[in-house]
Design a protein that fits this description.
Blueprint (H helix, E strand, L loop, with lengths): L1 H22 E7 L7 E8 L2 E9 L5 E7 L5 E8 L2 E9 L3 E5 L2 E3 L2 H25 L6 H25 L6 H5 L16 H14 L4 H26 L8 E3 L5 E3 L7 E7 L4 H18 L4 E7 L4 H11 L4 E3 L8 H5 L7 E6 L2 E3 L6 H11 L2
Parallel strand pairs: 1-7, 11-12, 12-13
Antiparallel strand pairs: 1-4, 2-3, 2-5, 5-6, 7-8, 9-10, 11-14, 14-15
């Protein structure tokens, strides 16, 4: 009986061992310039880097690192010596990546990521070079050059995404930023490229946390694109209900606001500019038009309700102020697909519109026309 159990148990061990070996991935090679230094292995965890190991590069510059990457997964791995990043890699299950200083072999994904990073770094270098040279004499010419540089880069990356959407490195490409912090792929129609990459990678890497995160971002952009199209093409739609507590703890329903015109205002009291917007824009408008039928339904997304309540008191904001303390998790943020603050809608005769006004004067004329 004992021998039978042993015979059954051994194949199980063998299967597990073979499976583990198949999932083993390796990064090895030579970094001649850094012989004797410590090599730090870092992994990207969606939005931050974490140290996962530290190796000693031998006196000849050789190193080797092994880890397990499950099938259906992919990892962004970065090699550092001190604060200096040496290589950016994409590690798949079973990969055997060889590095010879700057040259990468054995991983098409890592080679592609290196190309993406190189193009991006060149673009940012040229962008910063033009930006720092801007002055009153050549401002128009420099702005034209910046615009041409951006358009050329943006269009070239679109072609790459369309022609080869299966590269995991496209995730890095889609989330590239300008020096200002805004995304290069920030246009509403860019959701089409997000979806193309997302749908393709989801079939190849169904278990990847990065693909799951990309899917969430794609769905968010799709909702925003759909909402904006409705607002722009029809100028109206049935509005989602909002039912939140005010600063006195009383539940305020948006549908119960009795006014000719209601400004639905999403904001945060932690931003000085938005607090100034209350004083410089909303208060003058409210003072002038409240008696004529204007109401403001202000949704603050601050988790710290005490700070929010203090701001209301200090600024003497006498309109409807609501906050449930859930921050970006509040249902109103989801139903109105809020992805930037502040955001403002106008509710009139149960029709929701997105006003296109660029200044206080234009906003005042807009409201005055609506309340005639």
């Amino acid at each position: 009986m004992k021998s039978i159990k042993t015979l059954i148990f051994l194949p199980i061990i063998t299967i597990l061992f073979i499976s583990s070996c198949q999932n083993k991935s390796q990064i090895s090679g030579t970094l001649s310039e850094y012989a004797g230094d410590s090599l730090i292995i870092k992994k990207l965890n969606i939005n931050h880097l974490e140290n996962i190991d530290t190796l000693k590069i031998d006196n000849k510059g050789h190193f080797s690192y092994k880890t397990v990457v499950e099938k259906g997964e992919a990892e962004f791995i970065y090699l550092y010596v001190g604060e200096k990043k040496l290589n950016s890699l994409i590690l798949l299950s079973g990969d055997k990546i060889k590095i010879n200083n700057d040259k990468i072999e054995g991983s098409k994904e890592s080679e592609r990521l290196a190309e993406v990073d190189k193009d991006y770094n060149n673009f940012i270098t040229n962008f910063n070079k033009i930006s720092t040279s801007v002055n009153d004499k050549n401002i128009k010419e420099d702005q034209k050059n910046l615009s041409e540089l951006y358009i050329k880069y943006y269009r070239s990356k679109i072609k790459e995404i369309i022609s080869e959407p299966a590269y995991f490195a496209n995730i890095s490409l889609l989330f590239q930023k300008l020096p200002s912090g805004s995304y290069i792929f920030s246009q509403d129609t860019d959701v089409l490229y997000f979806k193309k990459v997302c749908d393709t990678l989801n079939t190849l890497y169904p278990n990847s946390t990065f693909v799951k995160s990309l899917k969430k971002e794609t769905e968010r952009r799709e909702k925003f694109f759909e909402l904006k199209n409705k607002l722009e093409n029809t100028s109206q739609l049935a509005y989602p209900e909002i039912e939140l507590p005010d600063n006195q703890g009383k539940i305020q329903k948006l549908s119960e606001v009795k006014s000719k015109l209601t400004l639905i205002y999403f904001w945060t009291s932690t931003e000085i500019k938005q607090k100034m917007f209350n004083i410089e824009v909303l208060k003058p408008l409210y003072s002038e038009f409240n008696d004529k039928g204007l109401e403001i339904y202000s949704i603050c997304i601050d988790p710290n309700k005490a700070n929010w309540a203090n701001t209301i008191k200090e600024q003497k904001l006498n309109w409807i102020n609501v906050n449930d303390g859930l921050g970006l998790g509040t249902e109103a943020v989801k139903s109105y697909n809020i992805n930037r603050l502040p955001t403002l809608y106008v509710l009139e005769n149960e029709e929701l519109t997105s006003p296109k006004v660029g200044s206080l004067k234009e906003f005042r004329r807009y409201i005055e026309k609506k309340l005639k």
